Amino acid sequence: MENARSLIPVTLTSPGAARFWTAIIITGIGAGISAAVLTSLLAVVQHFIWPPSHADILEAATQASAWHHILVLLGAGFLTGLGQIILVNLTSGNSIDITTALWFSAGRLPALRTLGSAVLSIIIVGMGASLGREGAPKQAGAVIANQLADRAALSDEQRRLLVACGAGAGMAAAYDVPLGGALFAIEVLRGVFALRLLLPALTVSLIATIVSWIALPNRPTYHVPPHSGSASIICWAFVAGPIAGVLSVLFVKMVAVADRSRPKGWLRLIAPAMVFGLLGLISIPYPQLLGNGKDISQLTFNGEAGPALLLVLLLLKPIATVMCLGSGAPGGLFTPSLTLGALFGGLLGHAWIWLWPGVPSGLFAVVGAGAVLAATTQGPISALVLMIELTGHDRAFIIPLVVAVVLATLVARTLEIRSIYDARLSDEQLAERQKLRAPASH
To answer: Is omega for the bond preceding 52 within 30 degrees of 0, making it cis?
Structure first.
């Protein structure tokens, strides 16, 4: 029988509760501070590399010369290659991938290597890498939690939860999504829904988000115009949901292939420069490919992107993301997944309007973003809450969003068991993960 001190404390009087909840509070504070620092670093890099300083990366890249695109992206490629060489030789130890560490190492992560990867990720995303910025605060939050678990002598089960909560809190603080970050930690990273897990996750994410307000704005990430629901968008969701599921599976498979194709040896130095140089060339006519995709998602939510541009970006944006990932560049996949869904929803919405007018194309983009996000992460509940928090809206799109999310996730799970976060796991590791997952669900 498992020792009571190794379990998650369900009350404040449970064995080891004081140590565990102290670690929870400190993890929240640390995750909030690190998210604020890393996000501020991203802004500094972006404003220095892509002037004018008041412009977002899309506006600045649109105004920049062709040579500026090429030189900046080549610089990002060389920096990525050099960073990989340094990080690989910095420390030995298990993988810096959070998902792998959670399932097979009880959340243990090499601190210096993981933090170095986080800083590198933020810098190259600020320079234009087509990857998400949430990867860095997630890594930082996970490292802080792991270090605290060591100092508090927590059990493996407690450490695993604390590290998942730290990673979720990092994302919560970076995007101002405390509830969504907590659910993401439990549903996607930890893979188990239970009250004993949810309360710590909520606490860490809430503290991290409040602490991050010292430097980050307390407002939704995306500004979505007010919309009213209709029968048209609900019917569209029944059509779009399964297609979004198939699209998500294709993206997950692309991520898996890219991860297996990461360069080794001295190719780590050469391959990123080639990939980023190519991205720089393509970004001259299509500056929307640069960065994590937030700017183009905002345009689609506002209905400001035409169908021709949406079609081109729907093809090029995921390719740009997996190329960066395959070159060995560290970065997140959360925002690229959301952007892929926004492009898909906006494009299919334009076609639907020809059949059934009356709904703005931006509303289709919001629903499509949520559907693809849910299917690629295989976290439908967290995706629903995240879309509400990211946009600051709920009633206008909650019914079509639920329909699309459920259908997309169901189709994706039927076709592919992997999500974007465990795409690198082998079949044997997936089987082992299912064995580890089953007992914790009781």
So the answer is: yes
Query: Is 372 within 8 Å of 408 (Cβ atoms)?
Result: yes
DSSP 192: -
Which residues sit opposite 132 in a β-bridge? 332
- For 213, the 3-state DSSP assignment is coil
Q: Please tell us whether the domain made up of 16-212 is placed in CATH 1.10.10.10.
A: no
The pLDDT tens digits of the residues spanning 411-439 come to: 999 999 889 988 877 677 777 766 666 54
Q: How many CB atoms lie within 10 A of CB 70?
A: 18
Of 1.10.472.10, 1.10.10.650, 1.10.645.10, 1.10.3080.10, the CATH number of 231-440 is 1.10.3080.10
Tell me the C-alpha distance between 278 and 2, whole Å: 54
147 vs 371: CA distance, rounded Å: 35
User: Environment class of residue 307 by beta-carbon count within 10 Å: exposed (0-12), middle (13-18) or buried (19+)?
Assistant: middle
pLDDT at 2 exceeding the cut of 50: no
The predicted pLDDT at position 436 comes to 61
Query: Tens of pLDDT along 102-136?
Result: 888 888 988 888 999 999 999 999 999 999 999 99
Task: Give pLDDT tens digits for 198-238.
Answer: 999 999 999 999 999 998 888 889 988 877 778 999 999 99
How long, in residues, is the chain? 442
| Domain segments of the chain as ranges | 16-212, 231-440
**Which range among 54-63, 70-79, 159-168, 427-436 shows the weakest confidence by mean pLDDT?**
427-436
Give the pLDDT confidence score for residue 96 in this predicted structure: 63
The pair of structure tokens assigned to 183 is 């659910």
Q: What share of the chain is helix, strand, coil (3-state, %, to 5)?
A: 75, 0, 25
Q: Which of 427, 378, 431, 421 is nearest to 259 (CA)?
A: 421
